[in-house]
Task: structure prediction
Amino acid sequence: MADSTATGDTTAQANIGVIGLAVMGSNLARNLASREGNTVAVYNRSAEKTHTLTSEHPEANFVASETIEDFAKSLQTPRTAIIMVKAGAGTDAVIDQLTKVFEPGDIIVDGGNALFTDTIRREKAVKETGIHFVGAGISGGEEGALKGPSIMPGGSAESYETLGPILSSIAAVAEGEPCVTHVGTDGAGHFVKMIHNGIEYADMQLIAEAYDLLRKVGGLEPAEIADVFTEWNQGELESYLIEITAEVLRQTDAKTGKPIVDIIVDEAGSKGTGVWTVQNALDLGVPVSGIAEAVFARSLSSHREQRDVSTNLPGPSNPWTVSEDDKKGFIEDVRLALYASKIVAYSQGFDAINAGAEKYDWNIDKGAISKIWRGGCIIRAQFLNRIADAYDEQPALEALLTAPYFTEALVRAQESWRRVVAGAAGAGIPAPAFSSSLSYYDGLRAERLPASLVQGQRDFFGAHTYKRVDTEGTFHTLWSGDRSEIEAVDTH
Ligand SMILES: NC(=O)c1ccc[n+]([C@@H]2O[C@H](COP(=O)([O-])OP(=O)(O)OC[C@H]3O[C@@H](n4cnc5c(N)ncnc54)[C@H](OP(=O)(O)O)[C@@H]3O)[C@@H](O)[C@H]2O)c1
Result:
């Protein structure tokens, strides 16, 4: 048995190691150590964190090292180490050190929030040494890391044979199944984690818009809205995010006695994964408008100077109010608008997964992805079972919202959805994610879009050509000549 207080013990006793012992790494290491059969090696750049962890958690019997060389020696071969350091240069620095002390066949896992293109680059470089490199998205924050996160590993199928059982043992469990699956090769895991975070942004923004409407139009106090969310959490909206929203809204500030939501500055921050999702979706040509609106809503909220000089801009003169008799119906309208918009956000997220899989040649099982998001991660929800069912029934489903379950839900919700979006616009209450989701839905179902006019404009100023509805081929109108039409080379 390993000695928790010893450092520099060079006998190979650990079957798994963790590098980077800040909040995520130390919790993940403790999670690993709590599982039958695991002996966990730990190492951190500054030894102080290592000492704190081993002294605070003697029950974990960590094998601690103060140098990367001793860390490598403390691992049984083939060695497996999970890096949990600051994403970016920190990750590159640790990979560089590990490749010097690891041997071919060993496995390096990056469990940080890496950009998937970095993971693709790192996997390619590390593979040359004969060492396996696995980028694994880990979601669930510090509690998830300790009690069971949702894990999205990429990398080779061969490395997953070793890694799969270890990751399964520490992952969250949803309906008896561990929340981990081999997502695909190289950067697939981090790509899917990025999309997960993008969906998370949209989900949070939609919930925030629902709260705003219930408060400003429904006249409900935060504690009453908390009760509404608690009730919603019993039905089709059941999710971790709805649950914690109720908790936040019920919280009062100890200092002032006011609802904490009124004390917190209304400027939302971000760590960048939502931005990555939108940037990559733009590159992939996938309209993730709900996610983009959520990212932009956070950035608008943070432009304090612009907001300060804009508060006197005129709004509509008629506020939207609901009578006591209509309140129940209004709350139900908001619930349905939230549900419909949420379906759109997830549908867009899965479209981005499809497009990424195609571009980077990943074979991603979308049903399996929705299942591993049912537990451990921030967007965990019952609803994900419906997505899994939809992909089980039709693996090549073109658009999630055309699956029968979701179409029925949208049909049921759409009158409410339209009332809420129209009402918010009329009253001057921003609801960017609600309204863009509805526009997306209407855009998809439209038989004709004004894109034909856009093509005409493009052809007018740039001879970008167009297709005709009635004839094969590519055409151009001689706009500055006699305006006759000629056949042209497709210059899309
Ligand atoms: N926090 C979350 O909820 C969450 C959720 C999912 C994923 N993640 C990801 O998990 C990873 C760890 O997150 P965290 O919040 O626990 O820690 P963090 O604050 O992102 O990073 C701190 C850790 O990185 C190490 N580090 C930084 N630069 C280094 C370098 N050049 N060489 C070696 N070590 C270096 C630090 O070592 P020293 O102690 O020596 O400074 C420390 O152990 C990150 O990639 C993060 O994005 C975080």
Remarks:
- The first helix runs from residue 23 to 33.
- The pocket of NAP is lined by residues 20-25, 44-46, 49, 84-87, 89-90, 93-94, 112-113, 138, 141-142 (CB under 6 Å).
